[in-house]
Specification:
The chain is mainly alpha-helical. Helix content is 69%, strand content 0%. It has five helices and no strands. The chain has helices at 3-26, 34-48, 69-89, 91-102, 107-116. Helix 1 (3-26) packs across helix 3 and helix 3 (69-89) packs across helix 4. The longest helix is centred in the N-terminal third of the chain and has 24 residues, at 3-26. It is globular and about 45 Å long.
């Protein structure tokens, strides 16, 4: 898969998850609230600079924590809330994400994990 394809798929996943949280927890129906727009923009920026593209692992399995602690906590909450709901709201995206969660690590990810002693 090409870098652009992976990047677009990851952005779509983040957008869907953030939108679910914003709708369910912040009461937004048609657009994201300011806090969620900022989180989505930050996540996009981190994806754009991800050193693992196009073999990017899911964030939970990544050896590098690239999010600032404030955003890391927010994105964890988003994933915790939206993850299970994705199966009914966007089953294709959810299945792709689950597949990536259990997919064997790429050689690049293994190399970095070994270098970091993880």
């Amino acid at each position: 898969m090409e870098r652009g394809d992976v990047l677009n798929a990851e952005k779509k996943t983040i957008s869907l998850m953030v939108a679910l949280v914003c709708r369910d927890k912040h009461g937004q129906k048609d657009s994201l609230c300011q806090e969620c727009r900022e989180l989505e923009a930050y996540a996009y920026q981190r994806l754009e600079t991800c050193q693992f593209m196009p073999e990017k692992p899911v964030c939970a399995r990544c050896p590098v924590h690239c999010y600032h602690p404030r955003y890391r906590q927010q994105i964890r909450e988003v994933m915790r809330h939206a993850g299970p709901r994705m199966l009914t709201h966007a089953p294709g995206v959810a299945i792709r994400h689950l597949w990536l969660l259990f997919k064997p690590e790429s050689p690049r990810v293994k190399q970095i994990r070994t270098r970091m002693g993880k």
